[in-house]
Write a structure and sequence with these properties.
Elements lengths: L1 H28 L4 E8 L12 E7 L2 E6 L1 E9 L26 H30 L1 E3 L9 E3 L1 H6 L6 E5 L2 E2 L5 H8 L4 E5 L5 E5 L2 H11 L5 E3 L5 E5 L15 E5 L2 E2 L3 H10 L4 E8 L2 E8 L8 E4 L7 E3 L3 H28 L10 H6 L7 H20 L6 H14 L5 H22 L2 H4 L1
Parallel strand pairs: 1-3
Antiparallel strand pairs: 1-4, 2-3, 5-18, 6-11, 7-8, 7-9, 9-10, 12-17, 13-14, 13-15, 15-16
Helix pairs in contact: 1-2, 1-9, 2-7, 2-9, 2-10, 7-9
Length: 444
């Protein structure tokens, strides 16, 4: 877990620093005085007058650069930017030439758009470089030698182990990773495919069922490639298997007299006997060994397995130009997907309960330091930050953008006092959303 936390911390640090740099760069270009540029907060966020100190600070020109003590985000302080931390007495005074509020609307718009633009462009650059270095791997359903393994949620939908899903709403699915996307995010209503016995099927998925799938997807996939029962790679010394006659290289072929061919069959038997005990028949070299083993409440006995099923993903390579084209296309799709995910909160039953916070994000990081996974996650998070900051909520960049666009369309500038108090309300809304997102463990 520490490795996952460290990766998330680094990812957020990179994204927030570059986001704030976007505001900083445009502000400097338009002659605004930038008073502070801080990584992390030098106060107890969101209370600007509590615990004011920095771990490091250095003033260069008009700007104080520093490292705050509160490791939660960062900020750039632009003179004349009307926000929730501003001394409201200042807004009663006329704007100075170096203040943001004195600049033309189009310049203020670009300053407020700066962070969003940087996050969007950064996501595309990361996708571009990742495609260039690692290419793209997909796992077509046709490449699965034993079809799909389905969990209890998928089973209740009507799917079965060994199924091949070929399309969603008649649209061919190129990769199994696209199935949840087409079904949940893109609003698919029907899953089509072929059962292991060759019989075709068409399953309708309701919005209520999508809510159940969403809950499952937060922790694990509801479908996965079906694999043969793996051999035992190692045995945990802290689990029940350590007290049973199970050794590295063993192949479990029966559980409670039930023949085991596939891994999902083994997992199903353990789940049925959670908190109980199972009789195992093991193939050890040329010998057959019988033993008993207790099962914990999560349906596990404590073995690490070695896969015996060869599944060859399709790898696509890119040159500089094609990687940029595909990266841009993927980036635009990600932004569109964030909008569709927002819509899900209002269209799919209990979807709002699946909103997660920092803990959920940390769990999505690799348990080992994996640079490919790290950069791909950072790109996805960058698109997410760009989208969230564009929402028209006061205090967020999108709130300022909303007021400036109103001014540009109507010719009437929203008063600084109104923006100040709107930001106070926006701060409350944002804090409430953050608290809700980061207490997702209470909803689980």
């Amino acid at each position: 877990m520490l490795v996952q936390i460290a990766q998330l911390f680094l990812s957020l640090t990179i994204l927030i620093t570059l986001h704030e740099f976007g505001h900083f760069w445009f502000a400097k270009r338009f002659g605004c005085k930038v008073e502070k540029f801080y990584l992390f907060f030098d106060f107890l966020f969101p209370f600007p007058n509590i615990a004011n100190f920095a771990l490091f600070k250095k003033k260069i020109g008009d700007t104080e650069y520093g490292l705050g003590w509160f490791p939660f985000g960062g900020y750039v302080s632009i003179a004349g930017m009307v926000d929730e931390q501003m001394d409201k007495e200042i807004i009663e005074k006329p704007a100075e030439p170096w203040e943001l509020r004195s600049k033309p609307a189009w310049q203020r718009l670009l300053v407020m758009m700066g962070g969003i633009l940087v996050n969007f462009l950064l996501g595309i650059v990361i996708f571009w470089m990742a495609l260039l270095v690692w290419g793209k791997q997909t796992l077509p359903v046709t490449k699965l030698p034993h079809g799909l393994a389905v969990d209890s949620v998928a089973y209740r939908l009507g799917l079965r182990n060994g199924d091949y899903i070929t399309s969603v709403d008649g649209k061919y699915v190129k990769s199994i990773n696209r199935i949840p996307i087409e079904l949940i995010i893109n609003g698919g209503k029907t899953i089509e495919g072929v059962h292991a016995n060759g019989q075709k099927f068409s399953i309708t998925v309701t919005n209520d069922q999508k809510g159940i799938i969403l809950k499952r997807l937060k922790k694990t996939g509801f479908i996965a490639p079906r694999i043969l029962m793996p051999s035992v790679d190692s045995v945990s010394k802290l689990m029940y298997a350590a007290n049973a006659d199970i050794k590295s290289g063993d192949l479990i072929i029966k559980v409670n007299e039930q023949k085991i061919t596939f891994f999902d069959e083994f997992q199903g038997q353990l789940a049925k006997n959670a908190k109980g005990e199972v009789n195992l028949v093991i193939l050890r070299n040329a010998d057959t060994v019988k033993t008993k083993c207790k099962v914990n409440e999560d349906g596990q006995i404590g073995i690490v397995v070695k896969d015996r099923t060869k599944i060859e993903p399709v790898k696509q390579s890119f040159n500089v130009l094609t990687a940029l084209t595909q990266g841009t296309r993927d980036g635009l799709e990600q932004v569109a997907m964030r909008g569709k995910e927002l819509a899900l909160l209002f269209t799919v039953k209990d979807a709002y309960k699946q909103v997660g916070g920092f803990s959920t994000m940390a769990k999505q990081m690799s348990t080992t330091w994996d640079w490919q996974h790290f950069w791909m996650f950072t790109a996805l998070l960058s698109f997410g930050l760009a989208f969230m900051n564009f929402l028209p909520i006061p205090m967020l960049d999108g709130g300022y953008i909303m007021f400036i666009l109103f001014e540009m369309i109507t010719g009437k500038k929203v008063s600084d006092k109104f923006i100040y108090y709107a930001n106070q309300v926006g701060l409350f809304i944002v804090l409430a959303l953050m608290i809700f997102a980061n207490t997702d463990f209470l909803r689980d």
